[in-house]
Recover the amino acids of this structure.
């Protein structure tokens, strides 16, 4: 059984999620301690509990020490992943982070995996659902991962209540080379509100468009169904692989600031010499490892990415070669 130190590197929940995914791929059991030790509220939160429960149900895994705020866990899958499951995080915990556990396991899945998840679709410290669909899933489709999502209802902090349907099919990850970036032809996006005046979404959109004045733009305004109130904007480039950015509204934060924040962050991503943005730089790590011989250039090397690479190397017989410094553009290779 592999032993994983949950305090390594950035010491957050991604260590657990990646360990769960690759344990299910390799059928190697693991014991993790110091779970989320570097966070203000260490141990398993509701989202992490549900991630473990989901992966256990998909693979009939043996689990020990699964309880809220536990800092240790043992997990050993018995079967290849398959199933049709409904799961409720019970809070505004991120649906997208939970779904990250499933994506690598499609490379060994026996059959379709269909999941209905209730929780948070647009919450802090995680990719919004529009980023997940238009950037994460879009890029993974290009390398052979057969997955898609449908968002039925939005979920915001603190009530949650969002609903996303995930569908994945058995997949074979292709080797890939994403080392060249391309200038965007257009900026796409969605500015949205739930249970708030639609004018907020229009103001977010205008603020973003003013900053992105040199680009062609196609930013739509949407009013989404939800239990609670929420607002935000997600932007991404068109031409080559999409680069993305987002910003969430919150009490006291003007709509103009939400829009400008997302636009300025996207311009930063565009100006850097990378084929994928900093967030996909992290999310592509396990797929590069599973492909066995791939490389890609990220706009910014983050501690998340370095930590994720460390976890993947524990499970797979590979080594990452990273050319670049943290906070700068970097080329990530597996061979």
């Amino acid at each position: 059984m592999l032993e994983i130190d949950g305090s390594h590197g950035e010491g957050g929940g991604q260590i657990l999620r990646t360990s769960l995914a690759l344990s299910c791929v390799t059928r190697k059991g693991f014991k993790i301690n110091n779970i989320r030790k570097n966070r203000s509220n260490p141990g398993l939160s509701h989202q992490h509990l549900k991630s473990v429960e989901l992966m256990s149900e998909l693979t009939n895994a043996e689990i020990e020490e699964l309880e809220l705020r536990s800092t240790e866990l043992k997990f050993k899958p018995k079967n290849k992943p398959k199933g049709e499951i409904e799961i409720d995080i019970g809070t505004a915990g991120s649906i997208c982070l939970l779904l990250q556990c499933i994506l690598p396991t499609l490379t060994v899945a026996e059959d379709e995996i269909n999941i209905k998840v209730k929780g948070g679709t647009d919450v802090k410290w995680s990719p919004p659902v529009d980023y997940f669909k238009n950037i994460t899933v879009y890029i993974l489709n290009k390398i052979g991962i057969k997955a898609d999502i449908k968002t039925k209802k939005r979920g915001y902090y603190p009530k949650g209540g969002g609903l996303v349907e995930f569908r994945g099919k058995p997949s074979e990850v292709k080797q890939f080379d994403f080392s060249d970036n391309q200038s965007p032809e257009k900026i796409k996006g969605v500015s949205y509100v739930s249970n708030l005046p639609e004018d907020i979404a229009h103001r977010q959109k205008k603020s973003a468009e003013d900053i992105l004045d040199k680009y062609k733009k196609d930013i739509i305004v949407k009013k989404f169904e939800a239990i609670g109130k929420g607002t935000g904007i997600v932007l991404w480039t068109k031409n080559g692989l999409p680069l993305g950015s987002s910003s969430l509204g919150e009490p006291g934060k003007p709509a103009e600031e939400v829009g400008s924040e997302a636009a300025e962050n996207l311009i930063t991503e565009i100006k850097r010499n990378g084929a994928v943005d900093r967030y996909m730089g992290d999310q592509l790590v396990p797929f590069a490892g599973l492909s066995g011989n791939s490389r890609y250039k990220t706009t910014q090397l983050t501690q998340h990415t370095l930590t994720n690479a460390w976890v993947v190397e524990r499970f797979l017989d590979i080594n990452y070669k990273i050319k670049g410094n943290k906070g700068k553009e970097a080329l990530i290779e597996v061979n």
Observations:
- The domain at 186-271 is CATH 3.30.360.20 (Dihydrodipicolinate Reductase; domain 2).
